[in-house]
């Protein structure tokens, strides 16, 4: 019977499932499954010569093995060679281990040597049954990224089978010469099975030409798939929404301020994009408080003055409702009919809203993703604005696309994205940047305060509020449990209400009903509340200029983007604003690094760049990455030159050599879903 292996050789379904977890579903994937590092197992070190801190391999015989239960379950093995004795310990082990380590058994162990309590030892070394006669490897041993229950030996065997076939280069030799990159086959073989004379340090630095070739190919595949998505999009149709300068001009005139030059520039870019007959996919980036909302409102008006509807979508009810309340009055004055759709709305109210939207009586609909998850439909949707787009998942954006004719899309993000990241992961989008804040903002002073000085902070909050100001108190983030998070928020509120009894204190968290949430926010806005205790639900978009003090508890638990967003809630008026970051010690290295960045920097782009260095691109892009092949080999900081070369080549390649482009994408992306073309 022929096995149903997805590979060219038999693989059991159980093994195939484990491989699939690593994204390995065909021979070509195994070929590109490159080692994380390599071990030198070509030599045996006599036990006598072992040094603590070094990694070594010994050939030894078991003299004793026992399972202890105190202080915890542990397998202790003593081994010896002609030169000395070595202790081995396993904290996780199976009965099969115990069987293997019978006295007299001969094995090879490799791992890090430690100076233990009773002499030298190895904890969780790798081991194989072997005696003096067993030949030593003549190559460095690769260590692959793996998953639970899939051993290195199995992976190595599988990779060897996949490597049995020749590896065709996807790129013509002349191009490689021009790019000064080596051929693919020798690069891949070298990385999987480096010869002994290959210096480990050079291999590990990833600046080795073989690595550079892989990084380039990976970047090229990404650029090709993004460029293809982009081309595909420009072949689709959307209603052209030309600038008519009727509603937009009237709206801009009625604003109590003039657009900043950066806002005006972004608005021009959006306005001309909307006039094109294919779907706009533009990302509007601007730091917290840079004034993205009015620009989005202008875009909506351009759709409406062309006889189409617009949808303004925000990731949270609080934010969606705030947009609605802030924009609707000014818009109604221009004769625009606004609707409001939310998950927490009363049924009849929601039905009425949908009726207005479907019948075309509403021009502009505000709401959360409920706007696109519910059965309701638009009569003529021309534009969708997605605020804080990084908060939305890919699935949600897809659902959005399935609603009738294809509307234009304006996505907004206050998470500034460093240039290299935008060049790679967002290359299919057009980007407008608002790179200045409106005038008259006072810079925010950030203070780092150890939790031991919480009383001083309380005094400061009291003083600020009694002097007519308002403040936020942000409760610690508890990722593991929403229930615990809620509990903490309520406890914090109760404690503060007691400690600051002369203040009017409100509480807002994610579990409140939408109208309760709205009531609290409205009271805070109207200054009926002095101190607002909040979970991180206020992270996005909330705008109360009189609140100039923010305290963030357990700031060490939060990410940089989150801290920056939170801090952006203050500094919106003319008062000097202060953000107090309360932290608990001891701090992890990462937490310390993050606090240092947020303390020293206020510029969102610079913070994002540091964030990228600390965490890698995944989280910075929010949910976007789930539909995108992530970079395994390329590093956007290190490989900027390769990224630029890949981008240039991708553009030419797609037009002049579509066959090369197709072959290259087939190898790197293959049957896996390429970028969802949004
Ligand atoms: P964000 O980009 O973070 O979404 P908002 O759109 O909420 O920022 O704007 C922040 C605040 O700045 C709002 O109160 C808004 O009315 C105000 N604002 C926007 N543009 C200007 C401008 N050009 N001059 C003065 N204030 C502005
Ligand atoms: Mg905003």
Number of H/I helices? 25
From the alpha-carbon coordinates, what is the Rg to the nearest angstrom? 30 Å
The strands making up the biggest β-sheet line up spatially as 11-12-10-13-14-9-15
Question: Helix fraction?
Answer: 25-40%
Query: What is the structural class?
Result: alpha/beta
Give the total of beta strands.
21
Give a description of the structure.
With 678 residues, this protein is of the alpha/beta class. It is built from 25 helices and 21 strands. Helix 9 (247-254) packs antiparallel against helix 11, helix 21 runs antiparallel to helix 22 (604-615) and helix 24 (640-656) packs across helix 25 (658-668). The two termini are 43 Å apart. Magnesium ion (MG) binds next to helix 11. Residues 292-293, 387, 541 line the site of magnesium ion.
Short description:
With 678 residues, the protein is an alpha/beta fold. It has 25 helices and 21 strands.
């Amino acid at each position: 019977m022929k096995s149903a292996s997805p590979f060219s050789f038999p693989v059991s379904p159980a093994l195939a499932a484990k491989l699939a977890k690593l994204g390995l579903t065909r021979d070509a994937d195994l070929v590109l499954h490159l080692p994380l590092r390599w071990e030198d197992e070509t030599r045996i070190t006599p036990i006598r010569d072992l040094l603590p801190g070094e990694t070594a391999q010994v050939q030894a015989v078991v003299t004793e093995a026992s399972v202890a239960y105190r202080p915890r379950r542990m397998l202790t093995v003593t081994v010896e060679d002609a030169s000395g004795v070595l202790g081995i310990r396993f904290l996780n082990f199976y009965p099969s281990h115990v069987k293997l380590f019978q006295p007299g058994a001969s094995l090879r162990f490799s791992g890090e040597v430690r100076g233990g309590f009773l002499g030298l030892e190895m904890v969780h070394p790798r081991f194989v049954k072997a005696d003096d006669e067993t030949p030593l490897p003549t190559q460095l041993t690769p260590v692959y990224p793996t998953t639970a229950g899939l051993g290195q030996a199995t992976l190595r065997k599988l990779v060897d089978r996949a490597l049995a076939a020749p590896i065709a280069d996807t790129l013509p030799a002349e191009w490689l010469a021009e790019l000064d990159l080596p051929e693919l086959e020798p690069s891949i073989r070298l990385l999987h099975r480096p010869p002994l004379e290959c210096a480990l340090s050079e291999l590990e630095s990833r600046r080795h030409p073989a690595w550079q070739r892989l990084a380039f190919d990976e970047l090229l595949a990404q650029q090709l798939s993004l460029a293809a998505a982009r081309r595909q999009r420009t072949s689709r149709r959307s209603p052209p929404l030309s600038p008519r300068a009727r509603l937009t001009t009237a709206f801009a005139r009625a604003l109590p301020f003039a657009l900043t030059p950066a806002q005006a520039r972004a608005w021009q870019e959006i306005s001309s994009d909307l006039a094109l007959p294919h779907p706009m996919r533009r990302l509007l980036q601007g730091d917290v408080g840079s004034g993205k909302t009015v620009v989005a409102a202008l875009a909506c008006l351009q759709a409406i003055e062309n006889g189409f509807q617009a949808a303004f979508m925000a990731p949270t009810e609080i934010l969606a409702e705030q947009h609605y309340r802030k924009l609707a009055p000014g818009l109604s004055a221009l004769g625009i009919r606004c609707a409001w759709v939310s998950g927490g709305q009363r049924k009849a109210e929601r039905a009425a809203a949908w009726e207005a939207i479907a019948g075309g009586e509403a021009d502009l609909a505000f709401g959360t993703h409920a706007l696109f998850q519910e059965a309701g439909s638009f009569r003529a949707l021309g534009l969708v604005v997605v605020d804080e787009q990084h908060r939305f998942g890919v699935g949600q954006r897809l659902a959005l696309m399935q609603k009738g004719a294809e509307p234009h899309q304006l996505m907004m993000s206050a998470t500034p994205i460093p240039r290299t990241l935008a060049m790679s992961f967002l290359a299919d989008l057009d980007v407008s940047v608002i790179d200045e804040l409106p005038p008259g903002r006072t810079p925010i002073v950030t203070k780092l305060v150890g939790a031991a000085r919480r009383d001083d902070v309380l005094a400061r909050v009291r003083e600020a509020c009694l002097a007519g100001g308002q403040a936020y108190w942000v409760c610690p983030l508890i990722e593991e449990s929403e229930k615990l998070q809620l509990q903490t928020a309520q406890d914090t509120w109760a404690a503060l209400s007691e400690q600051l009894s002369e203040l009017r204190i409100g509480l807002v968290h994610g579990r409140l009903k939408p109208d309760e949430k709205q009531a609290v926010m409205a009271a805070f806005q109207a200054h009926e509340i002095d101190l607002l205790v909040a979970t991180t639900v206020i992270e996005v978009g909330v705008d109360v200029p009189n609140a100039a003090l923010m305290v963030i508890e357990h700031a060490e638990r939060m990410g940089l983007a989150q801290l920056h967003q939170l801090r952006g809630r203050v500094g919106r008026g003319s008062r000097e604003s202060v953000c107090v970051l309360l932290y608990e010690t001891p701090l992890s290295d990462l937490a310390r690094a993050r606090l240092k960045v947020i303390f020293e920097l206020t510029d969102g782009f610079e913070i994002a760049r540091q964030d990228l260095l600390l965490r890698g691109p995944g989280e910075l892009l929010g949910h976007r990455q789930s539909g995108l092949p992530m970079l395994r080999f390329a590093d956007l900081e290190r490989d900027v030159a390769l990224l630029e070369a890949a981008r240039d080549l991708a553009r030419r390649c797609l037009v002049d050599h579509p066959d090369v482009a197709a072959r290259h994408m087939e190898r790197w992306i293959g049957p896996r879903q390429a970028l969802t073309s949004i």
